[in-house]
Design brief:
The structure is a single chain. Strands 3-2-1-4-5 form a five-stranded parallel β-sheet. The chain is globular, with a radius of gyration of 15 Å. The longest helix is centred in the C-terminal third of the chain and has 14 residues. By secondary structure, it is an alpha/beta fold. The chain contains eight helices and five strands; from the N terminus they run βααβαβαβαβααα.
Length: 166
């Protein structure tokens, strides 16, 4: 029996803390508006980011946290902010969840469509909104956001693929 996606094709995009923090750190959070229009964030996640969400973002919609629901087994032990993001995404249901770190891959294995900061940068580059990805990835690493980066061998494959597009 085939299992269907837990995310929807026409729901909003829901962002998690780690991905949004990384994009804010390199001043590329506005790419979310450019690529997705409005982006939804759980209130508890937004409140935990108060020190970096100091200015209003008209494209970022803060909504009340979703009531507790059972998460898929692979992600049920995720950090509290990731759990809040996933609960919101599954309750809406979202079309895409922006997550980074190990929870992103576990979410994908749980039939949840998820992308991270580097995927967003690549998409923005491919759509002509970002001139280069490599400097942004280097900035993420320099600013202490290596946890949002893929393993070195995956980055090398990415550089090869992006070079082939030139």
């Amino acid at each position: 029996m085939a299992r269907g996606m837990l995310t929807s094709t026409d729901g909003p995009v829901v962002t998690g803390q780690r991905t949004l923090r990384a994009l804010i750190a390199i001043r590329k959070d506005k790419l979310l508006r450019t690529l997705y229009g409005r982006v939804v964030i759980a209130r508890s996640v937004a409140e935990s980011m108060a020190e970096v969400l100091t200015e209003p973002r008209d494209w970022l919609v803060v909504v009340d946290d979703a009531p507790p629901i059972d998460l898929p087994p692979r992600v049920e032990f995720a950090e509290a902010s990731d759990q809040a993001t996933l609960r919101l995404a599954l309750s809406i249901p979202a079309s895409l969840v922006l997550l980074d770190g190990p929870v992103k891959e576990k979410a994908k294995l749980s039939f949840i469509k998820a992308e991270g900061a580097v995927s967003i940068l690549v998409q923005a580059h491919r759509e002509g909104y970002l001139s280069a990805v490599r400097p942004m990835v280097k900035a993420l690493e320099a600013l202490g956001y290596s946890d949002v980066l893929p393993p070195p061998e995956a980055l090398e494959a990415l550089w090869t693929a992006l070079d082939a597009l030139q």
